[in-house]
């Protein structure tokens, strides 16, 4: 028999009513007065802190249970407590991106009649990883449990982890090769996966039989359910204390207060108006095995972002003018776009922790239908949606930063960071068993610069501010490769008065396997996806992958001859080529090739952040330290920054201040000599535009944007002073 | 009173507390400012203060005691102030940047919730060894212990010679998986020592597999660097303390406290294991009090100026934290687990003028400039100011009257910066702030208990620290503890706890023993034999070290333990072995059952996954030997009327209104006395607030039991 909810008001009607109230009053659930807050502000505050503490400690417990280095070592998890209608009241630290995605999942179940079938009962466990229902990508698997108090549904507890293996066409979770939903892996579509606080055995069996490394997923499920039960029990104990009526009211007031707080903060930190930014993303797959001929092999994406800050503090982001979705895995759903907004706001404005869905309600996303941000086809793949999502929200970070700068909050300015490419693998492990996993050391890239100092090296990613790369000794237990290098990539931070944070590169030798499949994703090629600010340079595009198949590393080691531990800084010949014999491979963009075996060498690097301010204003002394420690090369110091270094008695670089002044004076003169008036430049470029004299990918990019967006088309024509009927041929 | 037999000294960041204890458990407390440059100075002044209180000279004191126990912060300060030794590092080639890259999490670990999210605040700790003195040598060992790339010995020689030429004080060696197979580290050390000898230099060599043979290279690296960087001056400080003790007639070696709760001589080879020892004393003291009162489930809570530290003993077991942070460096030193939240009397209170959000801390006014009421230049209102405004603190008896609290000054600033912004009265706002602080602590206690898997009514709460008793009522209300206890010596409870410790060694090795879910009897027996063999080796090593420290073999007891997980998991659960050797399959099953029981208690039963099999990742052994300990005096209960301790009446604001609260002198309370709230029980170093309707009962050990109405 179907179970019916015991709550007096049917959930679906309640949800509609709540949305209606928001519509008519402009306040969450029609709460125009924060009555409980004004009655006893300190009690109110204390309760909210308490809820946050429930979340933080539930997350810690789950991290103890998890088998996945993603969760245990680098913290890829977040938990939250929701109202019955699915609005987040309080949340833990972690991958904040998912707070509103889980909210969408709960609301989806309510809208789709889950109250009647399959029923929402005490002790039930629901799971989802379908991005069109509410998550970002297949590996982001979420679990929620309803919270009943004396038979009434009083809220939900939810948890999400990023799984290291999702059972898709390529091993790992960010299934790069997926071009439609059907190859992305194991889907759990808003499914009841457990009852009476236990995961169903048949669900666990499905996981065990459809994943390459089921222990990650299954133990993470257990971890999430344990943390949800923990939060549920805490909430029930709290209601025992404060009473049900108070709970139902205060939980909603928290959200309305969160909404007001977000508006107030925006008013406080920014200047109202329209801000525009832009970034690009290049995806190169031409000639790589496994890609089906569904779409173009190479893609170029144009991501214009307009941010409007209203006088009451509402932030609206508009993605009009971006590209249509495609047959690749980088599409995103509105849930994912929400997530990007949330994770950015929590880092820049709502970090006090008393943040909740109220902040989301004080914002609005305009996601044009049919674009990658809001596909009009639910069969599209979203397994690597971070690829486009992060550059888009990197622009948001810089737009916000312009607002901070305009308002005088110089120290809050942050160029941000975008992608940090993922490496995933599968095949036969060093234990002789089948395996599959995502290597999450990518969760520690270089951040963008600040307006007051350099970006953070090897310790930041946009999707989780609690960034970390984990220990080599932990990762090596899970994969058949050993590190022969893990080192800072010189010049990987965008140049500027303050440089972007640098990234690192790992170099491995394949060990004890004859079948290792390596797949990488989320790298932009040929165009910058990671901009700079106020004259700072963008971060470099991704490094190419280098591999040596059938290397002679063992013979060299036998003879104690030098090995290469990183590709080095010579753009013409890599150290790998210098030291190792074997079949040398250099590959741009995602790495998808035939399996590797023991003795092969492979390198994979992460991204740095963009720079801030003019390179000619950079501090020479700090630069000498950078060169000494491998963050910059001496050549870059001189050619990019105009900083001349000499050597001290120990052979270490020291800044030659006089020579630097001279060199910079020359560079300034050269700048003036090369400069032309903007009008002249526009006039000359206009000719190219008019003649559609672009690379094919660029032409296609603008053509598709103009076709999809009348506004973009008209802005484009206006800017270049083109004929009102001007169009670009698609092919 | 008799002659004291134990001196316990806890040198904190600000104050050095001394406790003297005699055979009958009588004790006296001494205090003085900590002297970081020469800790022996503060040690002696504090000891003198206590000796004065006892009425004896320093000579009489030191010549009569059996144990001098010193726990200081000197080594930690060396680390914090980056004033340690000049180090060189040799590591696996290709990994030299590890000291700059760190673990990413070191850029934000230890931050408040807000700053963890607020990414622009993140930054790496300054490395202890510069990149220019870090040398890579070609080599690699994998996690099975197999040599993948042989050691290039010629590179080691060159690196050693360069470091010798750079005049380093110490060379640290850390290679990947050296804890599984130390052959390369050992050879690197040998070559370094040869080069050092050739050069006639005085340089110490440290290897990571000797300092800390445990998985996670970053933590092992930090351990070996900190040992080399910070402990040598610490050793000198400890030696200085031993020297002055001897000068006044002390006949034995000075002892110090290990972060996992035992005593060791100051010649301990891994002195960094003593660096996080201060708060550990509280847990030891709790264990001791637990025996007196007959309860082995206890929560000890220490509230000072900035933090609220909570330690747990659940049915006699303490939890060990394997990866604590020290100055933002991740270490793998086993440490008695403490949960800490930012909550203390020094916390600065803020009301955001824009959003009207109230925030407590995380900054603390510390002791300099301190709260506004100290009138030492503090301008930000703190919890202590609220305590003064509400009459809970005696303005003329703070630190026994050494500091006169300026209540009006505090009131004026608090009104302007907090109460007016919230639109409520000064008293209401001040009590609200205190309620928030106490609710934070109360909530933290509940969370700690819920992690233990047993009901709160099994636990006794022990409250101490300078501000513990002051906020005890709110911190403990409604949790349903079996009992709530505080002490006349609350302000020196950690020092007291140190004096109750036993001599201890904790030896362990990483292992990789994977037991399949369906292992048969023969397999289980074989696994058991492997475990027993390791325990036997560890027993020998630990016992030998203790014998070398002068303990008789028959006085040493050993307890083996295992760190276990379901195969594939990344976090262990510590399981005290239910038996001392595993001789058959049933014994092994008992161990697995014990693991599952401990696991389900810490996590949740839904998270059990025996189908995955079991892994033993570390085997260890704890060896202990008894020491003379203080015994609290038991006295018959007298009459309940506490009139003999009554010292007056003061207006105090509690529960939304002013009360006439009775004042009592804490040291004058006698067994049997009962104090009814509203009342304030004062001591020069602490204050206990008894809320209306609540009662305090003094038991036969002179422990103060707080009973909520």
Automatic annotation (TrEMBL), chain A:
Q: One Pfam family, please name it.
A: Hydantoinase_B
Domain Hydantoinase B/oxoprolinase residues, every copy: 40-614
Molecular function terms, GO-annotated: 5-oxoprolinase (ATP-hydrolyzing) activity
Q: Name one GO biological process term.
A: glutathione metabolic process
Q: What is the protein's name according to its record? A: Acetone carboxylase alpha subunit
Q: What is the organism lineage in this UniProt record? A: Bacteria, Pseudomonadati, Pseudomonadota, Alphaproteobacteria, Hyphomicrobiales
Q: Which InterPro entries match?
A: Hydantoinase_B, Oxoprolinase-like
Cellular component terms (Gene Ontology): cytosol
Q: What species does this protein belong to?
A: Pseudaminobacter salicylatoxidans
Transmembrane segment boundaries: none
TrEMBL record, chain B:
Q: Which GO terms describe its biological process?
A: glutathione metabolic process
Provide GO CC annotations from the record.
Answer: cytosol
> InterPro entries of this UniProt entry?
ACX-like_C, ATPase_NBD, Hydant_A_N, Hydantoinase_A, Oxoprolinase-like
Domain Hydantoinase A/oxoprolinase span(s) in chain numbering:
220-506
Pfam families listed in its UniProt record: Hydant_A_C, Hydant_A_N, Hydantoinase_A
An annotated Gene Ontology molecular function? 5-oxoprolinase (ATP-hydrolyzing) activity
Cleaved signal peptide residues: none
Q: At the top level of its lineage, which domain of life is listed?
A: Bacteria
Indicate the segments forming the Acetophenone carboxylase-like C-terminal domain, all copies: 519-708
| Residue intervals of the Hydantoinase/oxoprolinase N-terminal domain | 7-196
Q: Indicate what this protein is called per its UniProt record.
A: Acetone carboxylase beta subunit
Organism equals: Pseudaminobacter salicylatoxidans
């Amino acid at each position: 028999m179907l179970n019916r909810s015991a709550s007096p008001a049917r959930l679906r009607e309640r949800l509609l009513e709540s949305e209606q109230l928001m519509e008519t009053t402009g306040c969450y659930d029609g709460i125009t007065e924060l009555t409980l807050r004004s009655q006893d502000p300190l009690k109110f505050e204390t309760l909210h802190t308490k809820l946050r503490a429930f979340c933080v400690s539930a997350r810690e417990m789950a991290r103890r249970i998890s088998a996945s280095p993603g969760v245990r070592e680098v913290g890829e998890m977040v938990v939250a407590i929701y109202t019955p209608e699915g609005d987040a009241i309080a949340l833990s630290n972690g991958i904040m991106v998912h707070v509103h995605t889980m909210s969408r999942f709960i609301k989806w179940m309510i809208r789709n009649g889950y109250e009647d079938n399959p029923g929402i009962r005490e002790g039930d466990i629901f799971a989802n990883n379908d991005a069109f229902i509410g998550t970002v990508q297949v590996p982001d698997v979420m679990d929620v449990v309803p919270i009943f108090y004396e038979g009434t549904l009083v809220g939900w507890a939810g948890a999400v982890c990023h799984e290291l293996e999702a059972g898709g066409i390529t091993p790992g979770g960010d299934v790069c090769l997926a071009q439609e939903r059907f190859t992305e892996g194991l889907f759990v579509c808003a499914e009841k996966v457990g009852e009476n606080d236990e995961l169903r055995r048949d669900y666990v069996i499905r996981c065990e039989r459809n994943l390459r490394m089921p222990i990650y997923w299954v133990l993470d499920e257990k971890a999430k359910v344990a943390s949800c039960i923990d939060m549920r029990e805490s909430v029930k104990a709290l209601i025992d204390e404060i009473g049900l009526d108070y709970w139902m009211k205060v939980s909603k007031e928290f959200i309305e207060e969160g909404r007001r707080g977000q508006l107030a903060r925006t008013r406080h930190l920014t200047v109202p108006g329209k801000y525009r930014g832009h970034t690009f993303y290049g995806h190169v797959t031409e000639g790589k095995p496994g890609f089906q001929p569904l779409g173009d092999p190479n893609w170029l994406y144009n991501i214009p972002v307009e941010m409007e800050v209203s006088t009451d503090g509402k932030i609206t982001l508009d993605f009009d003018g971006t590209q249509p979705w495609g047959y690749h895995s980088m599409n995103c759903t509105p849930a994912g776009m929400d997530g990007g907004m949330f994770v950015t706001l929590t880092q820049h404005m709502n970090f006090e922790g008393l943040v909740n869905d109220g902040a989301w309600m004080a914002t609005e996303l305009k996601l044009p239908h049919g674009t990658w941000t809001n596909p009009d086809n639910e069969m599209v793949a979203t397994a690597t949606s971070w690829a486009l999502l992060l550059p888009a929200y990197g622009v948001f970070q810089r737009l916000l930063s312009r607002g901070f700068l305009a308002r005088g909050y110089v120290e809050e300015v942050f160029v941000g960071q975008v992608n940090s490419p993922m490496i995933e693998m599968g095949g036969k492990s060093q234990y002789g068993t089948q395996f599959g996993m995502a290597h999450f050391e990518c969760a520690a890239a270089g951040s963008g610069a600040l307006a007051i100092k350099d970006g953070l090296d090897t310790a930041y990613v946009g999707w989780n501010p609690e960034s970390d790369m984990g220990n080599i000794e932990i990762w090596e237990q899970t994969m058949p490769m050993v590190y022969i290098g893990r080192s800072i990539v010189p010049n990987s931070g965008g140049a500027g008065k303050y440089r972007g944070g640098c990234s690192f590169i790992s170099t491995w030798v394949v060990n004890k396997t004859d079948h290792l499949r390596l797949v990488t994703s989320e790298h932009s090629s040929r165009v910058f996806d990671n901009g700079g600010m106020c004259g700072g340079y963008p971060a470099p595009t991704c490094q190419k992958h280098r591999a040596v198949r059938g290397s002679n590393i063992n013979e060299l080691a036998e003879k104690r001859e030098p090995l290469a531990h990183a590709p080095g800084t010579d753009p013409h010949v890599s150290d790998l080529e210098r030291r190792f014999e074997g079949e040398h491979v250099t590959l741009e963009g995602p790495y998808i090739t035939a399996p590797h075996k023991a003795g092969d060498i492979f390198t994979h690097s992460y991204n740095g952040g963009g720079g801030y301010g003019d390179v000619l204003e950079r501090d020479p002394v700090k630069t000498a330290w950078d060169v000494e420690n491998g963050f910059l090369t001496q050549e870059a110091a001189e050619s990019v920054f105009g900083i001349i270094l000499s050597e001290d008695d120990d052979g270490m670089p020291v800044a030659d201040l006089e020579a630097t002044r001279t060199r910079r004076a020359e560079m300034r003169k050269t700048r003036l000599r090369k400069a032309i008036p903007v009008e002249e430049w526009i006039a000359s470029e206009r000719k190219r535009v008019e003649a559609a004299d672009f690379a094919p990918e660029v032409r296609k990019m603008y053509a598709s944007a103009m076709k999809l967006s009348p506004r973009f088309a008209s802005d484009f024509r206006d800017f270049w002073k083109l004929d009102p009927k001007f169009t670009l041929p698609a092919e | 009173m008799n002659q004291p037999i134990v001196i316990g000294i806890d040198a904190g960041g600000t104050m050095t507390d001394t406790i003297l204890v005699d055979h009958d458990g009588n004790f006296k407390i001494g205090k003085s400012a900590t002297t970081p440059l020469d800790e022996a100075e503060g040690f002696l002044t504090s000891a003198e203060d206590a000796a004065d209180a006892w009425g004896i000279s320093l000579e009489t004191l030191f010549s009569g005691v059996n144990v001098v126990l010193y726990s200081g912060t000197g080594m930690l300060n060396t680390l914090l102030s980056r004033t340690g030794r000049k180090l060189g590092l040799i590591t696996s080639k290709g990994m030299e940047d590890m000291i700059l890259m760190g673990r990413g999490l070191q850029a934000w670990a230890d931050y408040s919730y807000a700053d963890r999210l607020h990414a622009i605040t993140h930054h790496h700790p300054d490395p202890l060894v510069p990149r220019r003195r870090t040398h890579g040598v070609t080599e690699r060992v994998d996690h099975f212990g197999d040599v993948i790339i042989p050691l290039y010995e010629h590179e080691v020689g060159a690196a050693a010679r360069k470091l010798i030429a750079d005049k380093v004080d110490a060379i640290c060696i850390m290679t990947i998986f050296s804890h599984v197979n130390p052959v390369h580290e050992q050879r690197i050390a040998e070559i370094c020592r040869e080069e050092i000898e050739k050069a006639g230099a005085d340089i110490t060599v440290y290897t990571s597999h000797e300092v800390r043979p445990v998985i996670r290279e970053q933590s092992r690296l930090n351990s070996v660097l900190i040992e080399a960087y910070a402990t040598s001056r610490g050793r000198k400080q400890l030696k200085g303390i031993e020297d002055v003790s001897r000068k006044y007639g002390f006949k034995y070696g000075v002892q110090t406290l290990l972060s996992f709760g035992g005593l060791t001589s100051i010649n301990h080879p891994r002195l960094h294991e003593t660096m996080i020892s201060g708060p550990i004393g509280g847990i030891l003291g709790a264990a001791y009090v637990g025996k007196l009162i007959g309860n082995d489930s206890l929560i000890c809570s220490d509230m000072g100026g900035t933090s609220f530290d909570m330690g747990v003993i659940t049915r006699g077991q303490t939890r060990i934290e394997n990866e604590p942070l020290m100055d933002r460096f991740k270490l793998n030193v086993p440490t008695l687990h403490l949960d800490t939240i930012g909550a203390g009397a020094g916390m600065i209170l803020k009301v955001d003028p824009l959003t009207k959000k109230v925030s407590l801390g995380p900054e603390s006014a510390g002791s300099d400039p301190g709260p506004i009421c100290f009138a030492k230049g503090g301008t930000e209102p703190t919890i202590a100011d609220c305590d003064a405004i509400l009459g809970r603190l005696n303005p003329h008896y703070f630190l026994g009257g050494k500091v006169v609290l300026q209540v009006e000054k505090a009131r004026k600033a608090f009104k302007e910066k907090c109460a007016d912004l919230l639109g409520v009265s000064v008293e209401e706002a001040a009590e609200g702030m205190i309620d928030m602080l106490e609710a934070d602590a109360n909530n933290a206690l509940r969370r700690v208990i819920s992690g233990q898997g047993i009901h709160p009514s099994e636990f006794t709460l022990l409250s101490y620290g300078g501000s513990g008793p002051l906020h005890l009522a709110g911190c403990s209300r409604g949790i349903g503890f079996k009992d709530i206890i505080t002490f006349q010596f609350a302000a020196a409870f950690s020092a007291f706890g140190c004096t109750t410790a036993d001599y201890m060694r904790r030896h362990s090795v990483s292992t990789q023993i994977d037991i399949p879910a369906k292992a048969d009897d023969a397999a289980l027996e074989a696994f058991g034999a492997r475990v027993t063999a390791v325990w036997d080796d560890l027993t020998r090593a630990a016992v030998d070290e203790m014998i070398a420290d002068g303990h008789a073999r028959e006085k040493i007891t050993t307890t083996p333990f295992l760190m276990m997980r379901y195969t594939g998991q990344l976090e262990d659960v510590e399981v005290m072995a239910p038996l001392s050797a595993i001789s058959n399959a049933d014994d092994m099953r008992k161990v697995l059952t014990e693991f599952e029981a401990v696991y389900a208690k810490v996590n949740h039963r839904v998270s059990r996954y025996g189908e995955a099999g079991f892994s033993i990742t570390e085997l260890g052994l704890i060896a202990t030997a008894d020491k003379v300990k203080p015994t609290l005096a038991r006295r018959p209960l007298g009459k309940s009327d506490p009139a003999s301790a009554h010292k007056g009446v003061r207006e105090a604001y509690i529960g939304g209104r002013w009360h006439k609260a009775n004042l009592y002198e804490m040291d004058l309370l006698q067994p049997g006395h009962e104090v009814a709230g509203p009342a304030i029980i004062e001591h020069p170093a602490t204050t206990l607030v008894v809320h209306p309707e609540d009662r305090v009962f003094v038991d036969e050990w002179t422990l103060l039991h707080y009973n909520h109405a």
